[in-house]
Amino acid sequence: MTKEAVSRADLHVHSSHSERPSFWVLQKLGAPESYTDPHEVYRTCRSRGMDFVTITDHNRIEGCTEIAHLPGTFTGVEATTYFPENGCKVHCLAYGFTETQFREIQRLRENIYDLRSYLQRERIVHSIAHPLYSINGRLDLEIFEKLLVLFNRFEGLNGSRHPRASNIATAIIEGLDRETLYRLAEKHNLEPRGEEPWKKCLTGGSDDHGGLHCACAYTETARCESPDEYLRILASGAHISGGRAGTSFRLAHTIYRIAFLFYRSKLSPESAGTSFLGSVVRRLAGVPVGRRLINGYRTRGLSRNEKLILKAFESLFSAGGSESAQGDESDMERFDHACEISQQVTLGCAATMVGRLKSGRYLESFQSLASLAPVALAVAPYVSAFAAQHKDEGLLKAAAAAYPASRSLVERSGKTVWITDSMPGMPDIRRSIRTLRGQLAGYPPDVMCLGEDSNLPGRVFRPVGRLRVPELNNMIIGFPPFLKMLGELEKAEYDNMMIASPGPAGLVGLLGAELLGIRAEALFTRNLVPTRKQSAEDDGLYELAWRYYRWFYSRVETTWFSSEQTGLLLKGQEITNARRLRPGSRQQ
Predict the structure, then answer these.
(1) 3-246 CATH fold
(2) Were 101 and a residue from 97, 347, 369, 547 both cysteine, which residue would form a disulfide, CB within 3.0 to 4.6 Å?
(3) Please, where in the chain does CATH 3.20.20.140 lie?
(4) 229: Cβ–Cβ under 8 A, 6 or more apart, which residues?
Protein backbone atom coordinates (compact mmCIF):
# COMPACT_ATOMS: atom_id res chain seq x y z
CA MET A 1 0.00 0.00 0.00
CA THR A 2 1.41 3.41 -0.96
CA LYS A 3 1.85 6.25 1.52
CA GLU A 4 -0.94 8.15 -0.25
CA ALA A 5 -3.39 5.34 0.59
CA VAL A 6 -2.72 5.32 4.34
CA SER A 7 -2.75 7.64 7.33
CA ARG A 8 -0.17 7.62 10.12
CA ALA A 9 0.34 9.01 13.61
CA ASP A 10 3.10 8.58 16.16
CA LEU A 11 1.03 7.32 19.09
CA HIS A 12 3.74 7.59 21.75
CA VAL A 13 5.74 10.82 21.92
CA HIS A 14 6.67 13.19 24.74
CA SER A 15 7.08 16.93 25.19
CA SER A 16 8.52 19.21 27.86
CA HIS A 17 5.46 18.52 30.00
CA SER A 18 6.88 15.07 30.79
CA GLU A 19 9.00 16.05 33.77
CA ARG A 20 10.04 12.95 35.73
CA PRO A 21 12.93 11.07 34.09
CA SER A 22 13.10 7.29 34.24
CA PHE A 23 16.85 7.10 33.49
CA TRP A 24 19.16 7.24 36.50
CA VAL A 25 21.72 9.50 34.83
CA LEU A 26 19.04 12.19 34.28
CA GLN A 27 17.72 11.64 37.79
CA LYS A 28 21.22 12.19 39.21
CA LEU A 29 21.63 15.35 37.17
CA GLY A 30 18.22 16.57 38.30
CA ALA A 31 17.17 16.99 34.65
CA PRO A 32 13.58 16.67 33.42
CA GLU A 33 12.47 13.88 31.10
CA SER A 34 12.12 16.08 28.03
CA TYR A 35 12.81 19.60 26.78
CA THR A 36 10.89 19.29 23.52
CA ASP A 37 8.38 22.09 22.99
CA PRO A 38 4.92 20.76 21.98
CA HIS A 39 4.99 22.87 18.81
CA GLU A 40 8.34 21.31 17.92
CA VAL A 41 6.81 17.85 18.35
CA TYR A 42 4.01 18.90 16.00
CA ARG A 43 6.32 20.35 13.34
CA THR A 44 8.67 17.36 13.43
CA CYS A 45 5.90 14.78 13.18
CA ARG A 46 4.21 16.55 10.28
CA SER A 47 7.49 17.08 8.43
CA ARG A 48 8.21 13.34 8.73
CA GLY A 49 4.98 12.23 7.15
CA MET A 50 2.57 11.96 10.08
CA ASP A 51 -0.96 12.88 9.03
CA PHE A 52 -2.15 13.30 12.61
CA VAL A 53 -0.37 14.35 15.79
CA THR A 54 -0.87 13.67 19.46
CA ILE A 55 1.36 14.05 22.52
CA THR A 56 1.43 11.41 25.26
CA ASP A 57 3.05 13.03 28.26
CA HIS A 58 3.05 11.24 31.59
CA ASN A 59 -0.25 12.00 33.35
CA ARG A 60 -0.51 15.46 31.77
CA ILE A 61 -2.28 16.98 28.77
CA GLU A 62 -0.85 20.51 28.68
CA GLY A 63 1.22 19.57 25.63
CA CYS A 64 -1.92 18.47 23.77
CA THR A 65 -3.72 21.63 24.88
CA GLU A 66 -0.95 23.84 23.45
CA ILE A 67 -1.32 22.36 19.95
CA ALA A 68 -5.07 21.66 20.04
CA HIS A 69 -5.77 24.55 17.64
CA LEU A 70 -3.52 23.10 14.95
CA PRO A 71 -4.95 20.89 12.19
CA GLY A 72 -4.81 17.11 12.57
CA THR A 73 -4.36 16.92 16.36
CA PHE A 74 -6.10 14.86 19.03
CA THR A 75 -5.61 14.35 22.75
CA GLY A 76 -3.30 11.73 24.21
CA VAL A 77 -1.74 10.75 27.52
CA GLU A 78 0.53 8.05 28.95
CA ALA A 79 -1.24 7.27 32.22
CA THR A 80 0.75 5.57 34.96
CA THR A 81 -1.45 2.96 36.58
CA TYR A 82 -0.89 0.20 39.15
CA PHE A 83 -1.85 -3.36 39.95
CA PRO A 84 -3.07 -3.09 43.55
CA GLU A 85 -1.94 -6.62 44.42
CA ASN A 86 1.79 -5.84 44.09
CA GLY A 87 2.16 -2.18 43.08
CA CYS A 88 3.39 -3.03 39.56
CA LYS A 89 3.48 0.12 37.42
CA VAL A 90 1.98 -0.04 33.93
CA HIS A 91 1.88 2.71 31.30
CA CYS A 92 -1.45 2.93 29.52
CA LEU A 93 -1.70 5.14 26.43
CA ALA A 94 -5.13 6.72 25.83
CA TYR A 95 -6.42 8.89 22.98
CA GLY A 96 -9.30 11.12 21.93
CA PHE A 97 -10.71 11.93 25.35
CA THR A 98 -12.16 15.19 26.65
CA GLU A 99 -10.73 17.22 29.53
CA THR A 100 -13.54 15.95 31.75
CA GLN A 101 -12.64 12.38 30.85
CA PHE A 102 -8.98 13.12 31.51
CA ARG A 103 -9.78 14.24 35.04
CA GLU A 104 -11.57 10.93 35.61
CA ILE A 105 -8.60 9.02 34.16
CA GLN A 106 -6.40 10.82 36.66
CA ARG A 107 -8.74 9.91 39.51
CA LEU A 108 -8.98 6.23 38.58
CA ARG A 109 -5.46 5.46 37.41
CA GLU A 110 -4.24 4.40 40.86
CA ASN A 111 -6.05 1.08 40.24
CA ILE A 112 -5.60 -0.55 36.83
CA TYR A 113 -8.87 -2.49 37.12
CA ASP A 114 -10.86 0.68 37.70
CA LEU A 115 -9.05 2.50 34.90
CA ARG A 116 -9.62 -0.35 32.44
CA SER A 117 -13.35 -0.47 33.22
CA TYR A 118 -13.70 3.27 32.71
CA LEU A 119 -11.77 3.36 29.41
CA GLN A 120 -13.81 0.50 28.01
CA ARG A 121 -17.13 1.89 29.25
CA GLU A 122 -16.36 5.32 27.72
CA ARG A 123 -15.00 3.70 24.54
CA ILE A 124 -11.74 5.61 24.81
CA VAL A 125 -9.07 4.10 22.55
CA HIS A 126 -6.19 2.83 24.66
CA SER A 127 -3.07 0.68 24.35
CA ILE A 128 -0.63 -0.82 26.85
CA ALA A 129 2.82 0.67 26.24
CA HIS A 130 5.93 -1.58 26.10
CA PRO A 131 4.08 -4.51 27.74
CA LEU A 132 7.22 -6.51 28.63
CA TYR A 133 9.19 -3.59 30.07
CA SER A 134 9.22 -3.59 33.86
CA ILE A 135 8.96 0.02 34.97
CA ASN A 136 9.49 -0.48 38.70
CA GLY A 137 10.82 -4.05 38.83
CA ARG A 138 7.48 -5.64 39.73
CA LEU A 139 6.32 -6.91 36.35
CA ASP A 140 6.38 -10.71 36.26
CA LEU A 141 4.85 -13.42 34.08
CA GLU A 142 1.66 -13.50 36.16
CA ILE A 143 1.08 -9.75 35.77
CA PHE A 144 1.82 -9.98 32.03
CA GLU A 145 -0.81 -12.73 31.72
CA LYS A 146 -3.33 -10.49 33.49
CA LEU A 147 -2.59 -7.72 30.97
CA LEU A 148 -3.29 -10.17 28.14
CA VAL A 149 -6.74 -10.84 29.57
CA LEU A 150 -7.60 -7.28 30.57
CA PHE A 151 -6.58 -5.38 27.43
CA ASN A 152 -7.06 -5.86 23.70
CA ARG A 153 -4.55 -3.37 22.34
CA PHE A 154 -0.78 -3.32 22.96
CA GLU A 155 2.21 -1.36 21.72
CA GLY A 156 3.87 -3.73 19.25
CA LEU A 157 6.64 -1.38 18.12
CA ASN A 158 8.45 1.11 20.35
CA GLY A 159 10.96 3.35 18.61
CA SER A 160 13.15 3.79 21.70
CA ARG A 161 13.27 0.22 23.03
CA HIS A 162 15.35 -2.72 21.82
CA PRO A 163 13.19 -4.92 19.57
CA ARG A 164 13.68 -8.13 21.61
CA ALA A 165 10.92 -7.34 24.13
CA SER A 166 8.54 -6.19 21.39
CA ASN A 167 9.26 -9.28 19.28
CA ILE A 168 8.51 -11.64 22.17
CA ALA A 169 5.36 -9.77 23.22
CA THR A 170 4.14 -9.62 19.61
CA ALA A 171 4.75 -13.34 19.06
CA ILE A 172 2.78 -14.18 22.21
CA ILE A 173 -0.06 -11.78 21.40
CA GLU A 174 -0.40 -12.89 17.79
CA GLY A 175 -0.23 -16.54 18.85
CA LEU A 176 -3.12 -16.32 21.32
CA ASP A 177 -6.18 -18.44 20.62
CA ARG A 178 -9.55 -18.72 22.30
CA GLU A 179 -8.56 -21.65 24.48
CA THR A 180 -5.39 -19.99 25.78
CA LEU A 181 -7.06 -16.65 26.49
CA TYR A 182 -9.94 -18.18 28.46
CA ARG A 183 -7.55 -20.46 30.33
CA LEU A 184 -5.65 -17.35 31.49
CA ALA A 185 -8.93 -15.62 32.37
CA GLU A 186 -9.96 -18.55 34.55
CA LYS A 187 -6.50 -18.81 36.11
CA HIS A 188 -6.55 -15.17 37.20
CA ASN A 189 -10.31 -14.87 37.77
CA LEU A 190 -10.68 -12.06 35.23
CA GLU A 191 -13.31 -11.32 32.60
CA PRO A 192 -12.15 -10.65 29.02
CA ARG A 193 -14.02 -7.99 27.03
CA GLY A 194 -15.00 -7.99 23.37
CA GLU A 195 -16.52 -10.46 20.92
CA GLU A 196 -13.16 -12.13 20.18
CA PRO A 197 -10.84 -11.00 23.01
CA TRP A 198 -8.05 -13.34 21.92
CA LYS A 199 -7.62 -11.25 18.78
CA LYS A 200 -5.44 -8.33 19.86
CA CYS A 201 -4.37 -5.14 18.06
CA LEU A 202 -0.89 -3.60 17.88
CA THR A 203 0.10 0.07 17.85
CA GLY A 204 3.41 1.80 17.21
CA GLY A 205 5.07 4.95 18.51
CA SER A 206 8.51 6.49 18.85
CA ASP A 207 8.47 6.98 22.65
CA ASP A 208 10.71 9.93 21.84
CA HIS A 209 11.76 12.22 24.69
CA GLY A 210 14.47 14.29 23.01
CA GLY A 211 12.80 15.60 19.87
CA LEU A 212 15.27 13.72 17.68
CA HIS A 213 13.39 10.55 16.75
CA CYS A 214 9.75 11.60 16.57
CA ALA A 215 7.82 9.56 14.00
CA CYS A 216 10.47 6.84 13.69
CA ALA A 217 7.63 4.47 14.69
CA TYR A 218 3.91 4.99 14.08
CA THR A 219 0.44 3.46 13.76
CA GLU A 220 -0.98 3.13 10.27
CA THR A 221 -4.59 2.94 9.07
CA ALA A 222 -6.40 3.19 5.77
CA ARG A 223 -6.52 6.73 4.44
CA CYS A 224 -8.79 9.05 6.44
CA GLU A 225 -9.50 12.74 6.41
CA SER A 226 -9.82 13.77 10.05
CA PRO A 227 -8.56 12.88 13.54
CA ASP A 228 -12.09 11.68 14.46
CA GLU A 229 -12.11 9.27 11.53
CA TYR A 230 -8.59 8.08 12.40
CA LEU A 231 -9.69 7.41 16.00
CA ARG A 232 -12.78 5.52 14.80
CA ILE A 233 -10.57 3.26 12.70
CA LEU A 234 -8.26 2.74 15.67
CA ALA A 235 -11.25 1.75 17.78
CA SER A 236 -12.27 -0.82 15.16
CA GLY A 237 -8.83 -2.44 15.33
CA ALA A 238 -8.08 -1.92 11.63
CA HIS A 239 -4.53 -0.66 12.11
CA ILE A 240 -0.93 -1.87 12.12
CA SER A 241 2.33 -0.66 13.61
CA GLY A 242 5.16 0.55 11.38
CA GLY A 243 8.61 2.12 11.42
CA ARG A 244 11.72 0.91 13.21
CA ALA A 245 12.40 -0.29 16.74
CA GLY A 246 14.90 1.34 19.05
CA THR A 247 18.57 0.71 19.77
CA SER A 248 20.77 1.36 22.78
CA PHE A 249 22.70 3.93 20.76
CA ARG A 250 19.53 5.82 19.85
CA LEU A 251 18.37 5.78 23.47
CA ALA A 252 21.78 7.06 24.62
CA HIS A 253 21.62 9.77 21.95
CA THR A 254 18.30 10.91 23.44
CA ILE A 255 19.77 11.00 26.94
CA TYR A 256 22.71 13.08 25.65
CA ARG A 257 20.28 15.47 24.00
CA ILE A 258 18.35 16.04 27.24
CA ALA A 259 21.56 16.25 29.29
CA PHE A 260 22.99 18.80 26.87
CA LEU A 261 19.94 21.02 27.09
CA PHE A 262 19.95 20.76 30.87
CA TYR A 263 23.72 21.37 30.97
CA ARG A 264 23.33 24.44 28.77
CA SER A 265 20.42 25.92 30.72
CA LYS A 266 21.26 24.99 34.32
CA LEU A 267 24.83 23.84 34.92
CA SER A 268 26.58 27.17 34.47
CA PRO A 269 29.44 28.08 36.82
CA GLU A 270 26.96 30.19 38.77
CA SER A 271 24.13 27.63 39.03
CA ALA A 272 25.18 24.00 39.24
CA GLY A 273 23.14 21.33 40.92
CA THR A 274 23.99 19.80 44.27
CA SER A 275 23.81 16.16 43.11
CA PHE A 276 26.97 14.11 42.65
CA LEU A 277 27.01 14.30 38.85
CA GLY A 278 26.02 17.95 38.96
CA SER A 279 28.96 18.66 41.26
CA VAL A 280 31.32 16.98 38.77
CA VAL A 281 30.29 19.40 36.04
CA ARG A 282 30.42 22.29 38.52
CA ARG A 283 34.00 21.28 39.43
CA LEU A 284 34.89 21.36 35.75
CA ALA A 285 33.34 24.77 35.26
CA GLY A 286 33.57 26.55 38.61
CA VAL A 287 36.86 28.41 38.91
CA PRO A 288 37.26 32.15 39.68
CA VAL A 289 36.17 34.82 37.22
CA GLY A 290 38.62 36.39 34.80
CA ARG A 291 40.50 33.30 33.64
CA ARG A 292 40.91 31.77 30.22
CA LEU A 293 37.76 30.24 28.72
CA ILE A 294 36.97 27.15 26.64
CA ASN A 295 33.50 27.44 25.09
CA GLY A 296 32.52 29.90 27.82
CA TYR A 297 33.99 27.93 30.74
CA ARG A 298 37.03 29.00 32.75
CA THR A 299 39.81 26.42 32.63
CA ARG A 300 42.85 27.63 34.61
CA GLY A 301 43.35 25.42 37.63
CA LEU A 302 41.77 22.40 36.01
CA SER A 303 43.83 19.25 35.48
CA ARG A 304 44.73 18.05 31.99
CA ASN A 305 42.09 15.31 32.23
CA GLU A 306 39.44 17.79 33.37
CA LYS A 307 40.21 20.13 30.46
CA LEU A 308 40.00 17.20 28.04
CA ILE A 309 36.68 16.10 29.50
CA LEU A 310 35.30 19.65 29.43
CA LYS A 311 36.15 20.08 25.75
CA ALA A 312 34.74 16.66 24.98
CA PHE A 313 31.51 17.34 26.86
CA GLU A 314 30.83 20.45 24.84
CA SER A 315 31.51 18.61 21.58
CA LEU A 316 29.61 15.48 22.54
CA PHE A 317 26.59 17.22 24.04
CA SER A 318 26.42 19.60 21.09
CA ALA A 319 26.51 16.60 18.76
CA GLY A 320 23.76 15.03 20.80
CA GLY A 321 21.75 18.18 20.35
CA SER A 322 22.09 18.42 16.61
CA GLU A 323 18.72 18.85 14.95
CA SER A 324 19.84 17.58 11.58
CA ALA A 325 21.68 14.41 12.49
CA GLN A 326 19.31 11.45 12.27
CA GLY A 327 19.51 7.70 11.89
CA ASP A 328 21.64 4.84 13.10
CA GLU A 329 24.76 6.13 11.31
CA SER A 330 24.81 9.41 13.26
CA ASP A 331 24.20 7.50 16.49
CA MET A 332 27.26 5.34 15.77
CA GLU A 333 29.36 8.44 15.10
CA ARG A 334 28.49 9.77 18.54
CA PHE A 335 29.22 6.39 20.06
CA ASP A 336 32.70 6.38 18.50
CA HIS A 337 33.28 9.89 19.88
CA ALA A 338 32.27 8.83 23.40
CA CYS A 339 34.62 5.84 23.10
CA GLU A 340 37.55 8.14 22.30
CA ILE A 341 36.80 10.35 25.31
CA SER A 342 36.59 7.46 27.75
CA GLN A 343 39.71 5.77 26.40
CA GLN A 344 41.99 8.79 26.64
CA VAL A 345 40.98 9.83 30.12
CA THR A 346 40.76 6.32 31.58
CA LEU A 347 44.34 5.59 30.54
CA GLY A 348 45.64 8.69 32.30
CA CYS A 349 43.76 7.87 35.50
CA ALA A 350 44.88 4.23 35.37
CA ALA A 351 48.52 5.24 35.03
CA THR A 352 48.20 7.30 38.21
CA MET A 353 46.59 4.39 40.01
CA VAL A 354 49.28 1.89 38.98
CA GLY A 355 52.03 4.35 39.93
CA ARG A 356 50.61 4.51 43.44
CA LEU A 357 50.30 0.73 43.57
CA LYS A 358 53.97 0.40 42.65
CA SER A 359 54.98 2.71 45.49
CA GLY A 360 52.89 0.74 47.98
CA ARG A 361 50.24 3.47 48.43
CA TYR A 362 47.32 1.06 48.06
CA LEU A 363 44.63 3.21 49.65
CA GLU A 364 45.64 6.20 47.54
CA SER A 365 45.63 4.03 44.42
CA PHE A 366 41.94 3.30 44.88
CA GLN A 367 41.18 6.85 45.91
CA SER A 368 42.54 7.85 42.50
CA LEU A 369 39.51 6.11 40.99
CA ALA A 370 37.57 9.22 42.01
CA SER A 371 39.25 11.01 39.12
CA LEU A 372 37.30 8.73 36.80
CA ALA A 373 34.04 10.46 37.79
CA PRO A 374 34.11 12.77 34.74
CA VAL A 375 34.62 9.73 32.49
CA ALA A 376 31.64 8.09 34.13
CA LEU A 377 29.58 11.18 33.33
CA ALA A 378 30.74 11.13 29.70
CA VAL A 379 29.79 7.49 29.13
CA ALA A 380 26.88 7.19 31.60
CA PRO A 381 24.20 7.62 28.90
CA TYR A 382 25.53 4.54 27.07
CA VAL A 383 25.82 2.47 30.24
CA SER A 384 22.34 3.61 31.27
CA ALA A 385 20.95 2.74 27.84
CA PHE A 386 22.57 -0.73 27.76
CA ALA A 387 21.20 -1.45 31.23
CA ALA A 388 17.68 -0.16 30.48
CA GLN A 389 17.39 -2.11 27.24
CA HIS A 390 18.37 -5.47 28.76
CA LYS A 391 17.42 -5.33 32.44
CA ASP A 392 14.36 -7.55 31.91
CA GLU A 393 16.14 -10.44 30.19
CA GLY A 394 15.03 -12.92 32.85
CA LEU A 395 11.38 -11.90 32.40
CA LEU A 396 11.69 -12.06 28.60
CA LYS A 397 13.05 -15.61 28.71
CA ALA A 398 10.32 -16.72 31.12
CA ALA A 399 7.58 -15.18 28.96
CA ALA A 400 8.99 -16.59 25.73
CA ALA A 401 9.32 -20.08 27.23
CA ALA A 402 5.72 -20.08 28.47
CA TYR A 403 4.06 -19.82 25.03
CA PRO A 404 4.62 -22.05 21.98
CA ALA A 405 4.51 -19.13 19.56
CA SER A 406 7.52 -17.47 21.23
CA ARG A 407 9.68 -20.39 22.37
CA SER A 408 12.07 -19.96 19.47
CA LEU A 409 12.86 -16.51 20.93
CA VAL A 410 13.96 -17.69 24.39
CA GLU A 411 17.60 -17.37 23.35
CA ARG A 412 18.82 -14.34 21.48
CA SER A 413 21.24 -16.21 19.21
CA GLY A 414 22.34 -19.31 21.14
CA LYS A 415 25.93 -18.10 20.75
CA THR A 416 28.69 -18.11 23.35
CA VAL A 417 31.60 -15.69 23.56
CA TRP A 418 35.03 -16.28 25.10
CA ILE A 419 36.49 -13.12 26.67
CA THR A 420 40.23 -13.10 27.32
CA ASP A 421 43.33 -10.96 27.69
CA SER A 422 46.19 -11.84 25.35
CA MET A 423 49.17 -9.97 26.73
CA PRO A 424 52.67 -10.99 27.89
CA GLY A 425 52.25 -12.79 31.20
CA MET A 426 48.73 -13.96 30.40
CA PRO A 427 47.90 -17.57 29.47
CA ASP A 428 48.43 -18.51 25.84
CA ILE A 429 45.02 -17.92 24.29
CA ARG A 430 45.21 -20.68 21.65
CA ARG A 431 46.23 -23.31 24.20
CA SER A 432 43.53 -22.17 26.62
CA ILE A 433 40.83 -22.38 23.97
CA ARG A 434 41.93 -25.88 22.94
CA THR A 435 41.90 -26.96 26.60
CA LEU A 436 38.45 -25.62 27.27
CA ARG A 437 36.99 -27.05 24.09
CA GLY A 438 38.41 -30.44 25.01
CA GLN A 439 37.04 -30.37 28.52
CA LEU A 440 33.69 -28.72 27.82
CA ALA A 441 32.51 -30.86 24.93
CA GLY A 442 30.30 -29.08 22.43
CA TYR A 443 31.34 -25.62 23.61
CA PRO A 444 32.34 -23.69 20.45
CA PRO A 445 32.69 -20.04 21.49
CA ASP A 446 33.32 -16.94 19.47
CA VAL A 447 36.42 -15.16 20.76
CA MET A 448 36.87 -11.53 21.83
CA CYS A 449 40.35 -10.79 23.10
CA LEU A 450 42.43 -7.83 24.14
CA GLY A 451 45.79 -7.99 22.42
CA GLU A 452 48.26 -6.62 19.89
CA ASP A 453 48.45 -9.63 17.53
CA SER A 454 45.99 -9.32 14.65
CA ASN A 455 46.53 -13.02 13.89
CA LEU A 456 44.90 -14.06 17.15
CA PRO A 457 41.64 -15.97 16.70
CA GLY A 458 38.39 -14.05 16.85
CA ARG A 459 37.70 -10.35 17.30
CA VAL A 460 40.85 -8.60 18.53
CA PHE A 461 40.64 -5.26 20.35
CA ARG A 462 43.86 -3.31 20.57
CA PRO A 463 44.55 -1.87 24.03
CA VAL A 464 44.28 1.91 24.29
CA GLY A 465 47.46 1.78 26.40
CA ARG A 466 49.72 -0.58 28.36
CA LEU A 467 51.41 -0.54 31.75
CA ARG A 468 54.01 -2.93 33.17
CA VAL A 469 53.48 -4.04 36.78
CA PRO A 470 56.60 -5.76 38.19
CA GLU A 471 54.75 -6.70 41.38
CA LEU A 472 52.34 -8.86 39.36
CA ASN A 473 54.92 -11.22 37.86
CA ASN A 474 56.19 -8.38 35.63
CA MET A 475 52.87 -8.46 33.79
CA ILE A 476 51.99 -5.95 31.08
CA ILE A 477 48.40 -4.85 31.57
CA GLY A 478 46.50 -3.59 28.55
CA PHE A 479 43.65 -1.13 29.01
CA PRO A 480 40.64 -2.14 26.92
CA PRO A 481 38.41 0.05 24.76
CA PHE A 482 35.61 -0.97 27.09
CA LEU A 483 32.76 0.97 25.51
CA LYS A 484 33.52 -0.46 22.07
CA MET A 485 33.67 -3.95 23.54
CA LEU A 486 30.28 -3.47 25.23
CA GLY A 487 28.82 -2.31 21.92
CA GLU A 488 30.18 -5.40 20.18
CA LEU A 489 28.77 -7.72 22.86
CA GLU A 490 25.31 -6.21 22.43
CA LYS A 491 25.48 -6.28 18.64
CA ALA A 492 26.34 -10.01 18.57
CA GLU A 493 23.44 -10.86 20.92
CA TYR A 494 25.32 -13.47 22.94
CA ASP A 495 23.48 -15.66 25.41
CA ASN A 496 26.52 -17.15 27.18
CA MET A 497 29.99 -15.96 28.11
CA MET A 498 33.16 -17.67 29.32
CA ILE A 499 35.69 -15.30 30.90
CA ALA A 500 39.17 -16.76 30.54
CA SER A 501 41.07 -14.37 32.81
CA PRO A 502 40.17 -11.80 35.46
CA GLY A 503 42.24 -9.06 33.83
CA PRO A 504 40.98 -5.89 32.13
CA ALA A 505 39.19 -7.73 29.31
CA GLY A 506 37.61 -10.03 31.89
CA LEU A 507 36.31 -7.00 33.78
CA VAL A 508 34.73 -5.67 30.60
CA GLY A 509 33.17 -9.08 30.02
CA LEU A 510 31.80 -9.15 33.55
CA LEU A 511 30.33 -5.66 33.16
CA GLY A 512 28.86 -6.61 29.79
CA ALA A 513 27.31 -9.78 31.16
CA GLU A 514 25.60 -7.89 33.97
CA LEU A 515 24.42 -5.01 31.78
CA LEU A 516 23.22 -7.16 28.88
CA GLY A 517 21.79 -10.12 30.78
CA ILE A 518 24.37 -12.64 29.50
CA ARG A 519 24.91 -15.86 31.46
CA ALA A 520 28.58 -15.74 32.54
CA GLU A 521 31.08 -18.36 33.71
CA ALA A 522 34.81 -17.95 34.31
CA LEU A 523 37.99 -20.01 34.13
CA PHE A 524 40.21 -19.56 37.19
CA THR A 525 43.71 -18.18 36.59
CA ARG A 526 46.17 -16.83 39.17
CA ASN A 527 48.06 -14.38 36.99
CA LEU A 528 47.12 -11.35 39.06
CA VAL A 529 48.12 -12.95 42.39
CA PRO A 530 51.74 -12.50 43.53
CA THR A 531 53.61 -15.58 44.68
CA ARG A 532 54.03 -16.31 48.39
CA LYS A 533 57.68 -15.23 48.17
CA GLN A 534 56.62 -11.86 46.88
CA SER A 535 53.84 -11.62 49.43
CA ALA A 536 56.36 -12.03 52.26
CA GLU A 537 57.79 -8.74 51.08
CA ASP A 538 54.35 -7.25 50.68
CA ASP A 539 51.47 -9.12 52.33
CA GLY A 540 49.13 -6.23 51.51
CA LEU A 541 49.39 -6.73 47.76
CA TYR A 542 48.77 -10.48 48.10
CA GLU A 543 45.63 -9.98 50.18
CA LEU A 544 44.44 -7.17 47.90
CA ALA A 545 44.70 -9.47 44.90
CA TRP A 546 42.68 -12.19 46.62
CA ARG A 547 40.03 -9.71 47.67
CA TYR A 548 39.67 -8.80 44.02
CA TYR A 549 39.52 -12.48 43.03
CA ARG A 550 36.79 -13.24 45.57
CA TRP A 551 34.76 -10.30 44.31
CA PHE A 552 35.32 -11.14 40.64
CA TYR A 553 34.50 -14.86 40.77
CA SER A 554 31.48 -14.33 43.01
CA ARG A 555 29.85 -12.39 40.15
CA VAL A 556 29.76 -15.33 37.71
CA GLU A 557 27.54 -18.40 37.76
CA THR A 558 30.39 -20.96 37.82
CA THR A 559 34.15 -20.73 38.39
CA TRP A 560 35.95 -23.58 36.58
CA PHE A 561 39.33 -24.94 37.74
CA SER A 562 41.49 -27.76 36.43
CA SER A 563 43.36 -29.38 39.37
CA GLU A 564 42.64 -30.69 42.83
CA GLN A 565 45.26 -28.39 44.30
CA THR A 566 43.56 -25.35 42.77
CA GLY A 567 40.22 -26.56 44.11
CA LEU A 568 41.60 -26.67 47.66
CA LEU A 569 43.02 -23.18 47.19
CA LEU A 570 39.65 -21.81 46.05
CA LYS A 571 37.85 -23.53 48.90
CA GLY A 572 40.26 -21.93 51.36
CA GLN A 573 39.57 -18.55 49.79
CA GLU A 574 35.80 -19.12 50.12
CA ILE A 575 35.09 -19.10 46.39
CA THR A 576 32.02 -21.29 46.69
CA ASN A 577 30.84 -21.57 43.07
CA ALA A 578 33.96 -23.44 41.92
CA ARG A 579 33.64 -26.64 39.87
CA ARG A 580 36.38 -28.83 38.46
CA LEU A 581 36.85 -29.37 34.75
CA ARG A 582 37.17 -33.05 33.87
CA PRO A 583 38.57 -33.91 30.42
CA GLY A 584 36.12 -35.62 28.12
CA SER A 585 33.02 -34.89 30.19
CA ARG A 586 30.18 -32.55 29.29
CA GLN A 587 29.67 -29.90 31.97
CA GLN A 588 26.48 -27.90 32.21
Answers:
(1) TIM Barrel (3.20.20)
(2) 97
(3) 3-246
(4) none
